[in-house]
Amino acid sequence: MPQWNVSSVLFLLLLKALISYCEFVSYVETIHSDSDKDVTSGKVLFNFSTTAIRLDLIPRDGLEGYLQLKSLSNGTYHIVVDRDVDLNELNPTSYPVPNTKEKLQCNYSTPSAGRCQLNRRVKVTSSVTVAIRDVNDKAPFFLCAPYHKVINELTMVSTTVFTFSGLAADYDIDGGISGYNIVSGDEGVFVMSGAASEGCVVLQETLDYDHGPRKYTLNISVTDTGDPPLSNWALLYITLADGDDQNPVFDHNIYHLTLPEKQLTVVNSSFSTDPAISAHDLDLGINDTVAYTLDAGYSHNGISYFSVDHMTGHVIPLHVLDCSEKDQFIIQLKTYQVNNPTSRFSYATLIVTVEDVNDHRPVIQLSSYNVTIPENSPRNYHVLTLQAVDYDRGSNAVFAFHAIDPGGSFDISPHSGVLYVRDPMKLDREVQDTFSVIVYTEETESLERHRSDNVTVTITLSDANDNSPAFMNDTYHFRVTSLAPVNSDVGTVSAADLDQGRNAEVHYQILFATKQAQFIFSLDGTTGMISTRKRLNTPYVDRYVLTIEARDQPVFHSHSRSCVAKVTIEVELANEHAPHFIGAPYHVTVSEATPVGSSFLHLQATDDDGDVDLVYEYLSTHPPCRCFNIDTNSGWVYTLKPLDREQVDSFKLQVTVSDGKYNVTTNINVTVDDVNDNDPEFPVVTYDFNVTEEQPPGVTVGHIQATDHDMGVNAAVEYLIASTRASKDFHLDPETGELTTTMSLDRETVSRYQFLVVARDGGNTSRSVFVSVSVSVTDINDNVPVFSEDTYSVSVVEKSAPGDVLQLQAEDADSANNADIVYVISRGNTSLFGINAEDGTLFTRVTFDLSVARKWRLYSLTIMAYNSASFDGAVVRQNGTAQVTVHIVDLNDNSPVFTRSTYSFIIREDIAVGSTVGRVIAVDNDDSDRNSFPRYWFKDVHSPAARKFMLDSFTGVIRVKHPIDRDTPAADTYFVFTVVASDMVPVHDTSVIHNVTAVVNITILDVNDNAPTFSSDFYTVEVLENVTVGTDIGLIVEAEDRDTLDQLGTSPLSFCLLRVDTLSGHLLLDVSLDYDDRERPSTYTLTLLAVDSGQTPLTGTATIRVDIVNVNDNWPVFNLSEYHFTVAENEAAGHVIGRLHANDPDGDLVTYEIPVGAGDMFAILQNGELRLLSSLDYELSRLHSLVVRASDIYSSSGELLDTPHDTMVSVIVTVEDRNDNMPVFETGRYNVTVAEDTADTTLLKV
Predict the structure, then answer these.
(1) Is 61 helix (H, G, I), strand (E, B) or coil?
(2) What would the DSSP string read from start to end of 362-410?
(3) Single Gene Ontology BP term (predicted)?
(4) How many CB atoms lie within 10 A of CB 60?
(5) What are phi and psi for residue 818, nearest 5 degrees?
(6) Is the model's pTM score more than 0.85?
(7) Distance CA 479, CA 1051 (A)
(8) What tens digit of pLDDT does each residue of 1177-1213 get?
(9) Residue 274 DSSP class
(10) Alpha-carbon separation of residue 214 from 205, 209, 282, 289, 394 (angstroms)
(11) Beta-bridge partner residues of 1049
């Protein structure tokens, strides 16, 4: 409410006497205050005196007056303030009128002194006018704030984007708007321009929707014209609209597409690339529609092979592709804005690879090859290089050579096609002169693995003289009669050479001879025939020895090879006697195990002629058999085949001996001796016998027989049982093979015996054979039935219909009819119970009712099992029995009932896990324990309550299962859930389960267990150093407390730089800043504290880093007020005269220039060096005056400053003289006349 202020309110009281006889004093009084104290109700404004009988102050228009008239003694009156003044009450309009009027009424009587001769009362009225000057106590305000404005990012700089004129008002009487300012949020982008009262927000920097801020929040202040002025704030939200200033761009620079060749199906089909072609408009707010086209590279030989779907970017082949013509297209892909295709576009590259179709097989150049190589070619010798081609491309054209050479002599390089020698050891022309190698190629990287046709490479080996001649025998024995005539042929030596041609031609010569044999015998060098040169009987020599060489005849004699043989020539005298055997005829015994080739008889014969070279010969065998032979020279008889006595036990051989002229024959009788080489043999694979159980020992089970084809002891057979178990129960006669029992057998213990019997002969190394024997034990009825359990227990629910209640099972160890069992109740109430005699099923005959016979809850029965067949056992046994107890079970016919329908509990949220919350109770009126004690559980086991609490199924106690948190995010404030009580599940009838439910309400009380938390642990803010105290620095801190009733307060700690509005969270600057004061930091780290209102308050903290931003508020300062330099004249250009230095307290970069006085003689560098541009001349000018300007155009980071400052300094350059001029006479000639005889007189001064 506006207050009357003595210093600012003028009261004018005008009392005017309307009647001339009234002594009514008029007052015009101005009151001035000596202090700034407000005038309160009851304050005396002024007083006056009057002789009026009565003076009244009448309110205007019936309103309560603001002034009060108080009467004192002696006609004195006070006018006092009766109430506080509110201009809105005086003039309840938008803009109050600053005045009020009160009527002052004067009533008086005529005086007795006669001065006024009236005899009646006179009423006089006058007005008291109080002029009120308004106190500026109302701040201006914005209408319809906050404000929103959307501008296009392409808005030109200097454009007015918003005008506040007419959007602010002031309720004060004299209120007016002096101007508007941008307090914060402009970030240098906007400025308030034009007339102050207009409030024009003008754009001063270019906008960028795509890379800069998209929203600006300007804090606008309005100030009134009052004294002192008052201000208010409002927010202007400026939102950028995207302008079309960006080209569309592809999401990738390169796209790939692979298409198969020669596929008609791809023509006019759409294909997506990898990655899929996509582009977007960089003007994200507009996001104009883009389209695609192919710009270049999509044709070949004048044919366009591709197009692109303008909207989807799918590539469309227009023709069948052929990889052999062009295997790759590099296409320039273009995207453009549909609404501006000529100005807004960009490019990318599309690479289309034509994928080869594997439609060609590799082909080897020739269908066959013939090549000749030397037979002694080394390993890896290059035989032949094969050429092949595959007309496909890429991996389909990659193939390898393969060679098929069964002998392994040759191989081929898979990549080069070089056929080479693999195993030179096999290249022997004399063994094999021609080789055939199959060669083919096969693709290695294609899926089809196409293979070429087979090509045959025929390789012929050329001969090398790598074989020496070889005689057929190393030694030769020839005989010649002593009566042989001259030139008689004695014998021929023969040597062969495996080589070919001249390498295989052999020539013979005698190298050495004994007893002058070279003169007695001649040798044909070509045929190797040895013949006599002369008669051999005179003189007679019985033996000659020759050494004969055989040498081949190669082209180069030095390469020849040779061999030698020894030739023995025996000279025989005339043969006149026949040979005869010594010891004939012959009888010999040979074991049938004699190895083939073994000699068993040495025949000896003699000849009276003295001949030693007798020849033995095998003639025949009886029975016919090529089982023997005889060494023709030594006479040893040996075996050719294995002998088998069981087939033939004797042979008769016929042999002969010859001396070349006479033949003599003899017989050899051979007896084959037996060897144990045959196994005994059983006539059957398995013996099967039967024997009845419980017979006395010694019963014959059966006989086992085996035969042996050997003879003597080798054929004698012995029998043995190979099983230890069977040998205890059975005896086997080792000679006869009779099998008997050794004890009484029990089928129930062993019903069948399986064992092996061994038959072995009597040889030194015996031979044996096994046979399987099976003995089945025949059953007799020697066992009684036996129950699987001695006792049984079964429950029968009352009121159940008669029927089966239990299946009893007895077992009999006997088999077949001997195991048939009959069941009977041998003891018990057969009127209530019965049993099926065949299968042992126990059943009830009546319906039980405990309400009628409650005491009969338990029955005992004895069940007997016996055989229907007669007992044959030697030992009499009792039939099996079992005891059965039958329990009559109470019927569950009562439902449990909760003691309350709803249970309510209250707990604190900090209740410990495991603590008891409360208990629910249900009762059941059934009699049995099983039916009368309910069990409890959650109706919804997946409910939030079931996850937080656990319910004891037996007691109904509810306990805490997991921690409770009333606060967010858990928000466990209240739990409502349903519990179920159920009686025990009946054994036989699940349909009579009884369930009952109750509702449980659990209320969670809040605990102050959460400290306040700030929205961020760390805040950063930049503040310009010239920001005024009290300014909102543009950072709002927020804290929250998850507890329910807590209220927060915030305060900064650590430094009194900022103060925080505890309600809004706005941070306000509390001290003035100066970035350039080096004694004060440029960065502050503050701690912000949030405190909740809990009984034990909890706190949260956050850190704020405040970076003080430098503002260019200082001018460069030179280190001198004036500079003086001296330089000698004639110094060369570039000479450093001196150096100036200026420092900028803001730390900005200082630049120098000479605006005045530089001419073409001086220059200053940016390091402050003052240099000469040209030489100075002392004689022309001895002093130069310059002005140097230092400017802080750039910040320390190199950025151009908006408002640079500069400083001028005066520089005086003094030029020093140098002796660079010769003396010069004033005139080139002087004339003087002197008289003769003149002495000591100055004639001339030059």
Answers:
(1) helix
(2) -EES-SEEEEEEETT--TT-EEEE--EE--S-GGGG-EEEEEE-TT-SE
(3) establishment or maintenance of cell polarity
(4) 14
(5) -70, -15
(6) no
(7) 142
(8) 888 888 888 889 999 888 777 778 778 888 988 899 9
(9) B
(10) 14, 5, 14, 22, 53
(11) 1091
